[in-house]
Design goal:
By secondary structure, the protein is α+β, with helices and mostly antiparallel strands. Helices cover about 35% and strands about 20% of the residues. Keywords: Signal.
Length: about 240
């Protein structure tokens, strides 16, 4: 084999190796969805912005169900057209205590039903909710649907055109340490950001148009609300 031929073969081999390595590097740099929120200051700020965006959306809308419908669709958390459904959780009934009865303005002898559900979009549980409601304030069809189906509460009673009074909104976890806005951001190790199971907790009362309360809620929103690719930083 001539020197020139040998040289051409070596050059072709090096080029092929470069292509393979480049492909491997590109694949390695394409993180899985589960690890795209990184333990870096930028990613933590982005995570906080997303959590607070969801928090604001929930607080400004009467139905958490319909808000989660939109969140799920906008962030492609499930196949197109998917809607929130309620997985009933049995064996964990919580009777209405004096505080719940006071919130619902009902006496000790009036029936209050209880429903615990996981609100699911596709295969992701986006929230878990405790719901105490007054069956006498709903239609027979609504009560039947709530007893026998996986319909979410907000969708079942949507025809009531209800309003929502928020009692509290608690951030259960913050990506940034307290005082970061004055003391600056701490650099973290590279790698995935570890999220706790629950990020937000809301307490609220749903009311009829005349102001009569008919449902008291405790809603806990899970880390799955962030289960989408981290926002990209776009060049201007």
């Amino acid at each position: 084999m001539s020197f020139c031929s040998s040289k051409r073969i070596r050059i072709a081999a090096l080029a092929a190796t470069a292509i393979v390595l480049g492909t491997q590097i590109a694949i390695a740099q394409e993180p899985s969805i589960g690890s795209q929120w990184l333990n870096s200051p930028t990613s933590r700020v982005e995570a906080l912005a997303v959590i607070q965006t969801l928090n604001a959306n929930l607080l400004s809308n009467a139905s958490a169900t319909l808000t989660l419908d939109r969140w799920c669709a906008a962030h492609k958390l499930a196949p197109e057209g998917s809607k929130i459904v309620a997985q009933r959780v049995g064996g964990q009934d919580k009777s209405a205590d004096e505080h719940i009865r006071e919130l619902l303005t009902v006496g000790p002898g009036e029936l209050i039903a209880y429903r615990r559900v996981r609100l699911v979009c596709g295969d992701r549980v986006l929230s878990e909710a405790d719901n105490w409601y007054v069956p006498a304030k709903l239609t027979a069809e609504m009560n039947q649907a709530l007893k026998t189906s996986d319909i979410a509460f907000g969708r079942a009673v949507q025809a009531l055109n209800f309003t929502r009074t928020n009692l509290s909104a608690k951030l259960l976890w913050s990506p940034l340490s307290e005082g970061w806005d004055m003391e600056g951001l701490t650099a973290h190790e590279t790698g995935p950001l570890t999220l706790p199971p629950f990020l937000l907790e809301h307490r609220a009362v749903l009311k009829l148009r005349d102001g009569t309360p008919f449902s008291a809620l405790v809603e806990s929103y899970t880390d799955k609300v962030l289960d989408f690719p981290v926002p990209r930083l776009l060049a201007q």
